[in-house]
Description:
32% of the residues lie in helices and 28% in strands. The chain is an alpha+beta fold. The strands form 4 sheets. Strands 1, 2, 8, 9, 10, 11, 19 and 20 form an 8-stranded mixed β-sheet that branches.
Amino acid sequence: MERTTCCVVGGGPAGMMLGLLLARAGVEVTVLEKHGDFLRDFRGDTVHPSTLDLLDALGLGERFAALPQSRVTEVLLPDGAGGSRRVGNFDLLGRVGVRHPYVALVPQWDLLDLLADAGRAEPTFRLRMDTRATSVVREHGRVVGVRYRTTTGAGEHVDGEIRADLTVACDGRHSVLRDGSGLPATEYPVPFDTWWFRLPRHADETRAALVPRIGTGRFAVVIPREGYYQIGYLAPKGRDDRLRADGIAAFRADVAELIPEFADRVDELASMDEVKHLDVRLNRLHRWHVDGMLCIGDAAHAMSPIGGVGINLAIQDAVATATLLAAPLQRGGAGPRELARVRGRRRVPTMLVQGLQRLMHAAVAGPALAGDPSGPPEALLRAVQRLPWLQIVPAYLVGVGFRPERAPAFARRDAVPSDA
Length: 420
């Protein structure tokens, strides 16, 4: 049996950021990641201005900027006539003091490797790869750690147990720890699932925008990446079996019809194995903690891919958690009252973002999937064209958010005084 002060389950953006921040506060922290590496395709790869500011404050900005990346400076919406109109302009954020007026698109594994390397530089940080949490350990009604299964270099499975003053579930929308906690959640209806795939990007295709395409009963979002396009194909829930039964030739033809400019490259899709299905969920826990355990990120509130805000909201949760709980953990533990403060701080921003996503589902996704390809209300599109300064509003809501968290003073490695 092992022991640590804080056991973080899940080495995604929330878990790795929380582990780094707590270690910089001198808290002994162990992060358990079930995979042997971070190489997962089609994970959240959008890093927004608020997260870029955070990386600067942590002294990681230059290392992040050196990673291969593309940058998005516009948000477009379809106009119902086969074209699109700009409704969000990230360049305008520079006028209100945003230091990084763009969304960086970076493979998530590069970001996680960056955070892991920074964590390893701290003496109280420990990262356990190939270690899957299987259940919580309870004593007298309180969570006191987790049971895990790890894989040795020889491929053997070894079961173990780690005790902790606090366990934090950062293990995503299918969280094992949350499901075993009995915490109730509200599930919101989502009319679609997403199928992710990639197609080549030609050297002369340089526009840095998120480009949607609407067809009858389905639509797509085209995300420009370094050397390729990442494409999200959205269609009604329950269609995965049908798409796979129809086969890759039918899928190629559908994509070519939906995105005509890609008709010259859809043959690059060799099989439906290259098309990854995401079961889209939108939910939120009523309470984020039980005694001894806290849920954050997708474990507390699964997000829709609309807006690409999930990774950044999860990181904001991690910053708030470290800010509020580092001192109690240094003193010997965080009780239910301290844990409840995390939800109290992050609940409203989460509700507002999910509210915007539900609005986009109703105004754009729902009608398109019901057979109406006309796109958003024409009055909205005309307003942002006649008054271009309005384009800062969606850019700010997507890029900065409702309550951006600042790096706590104990974690900063820059010369800028903390204003948290």
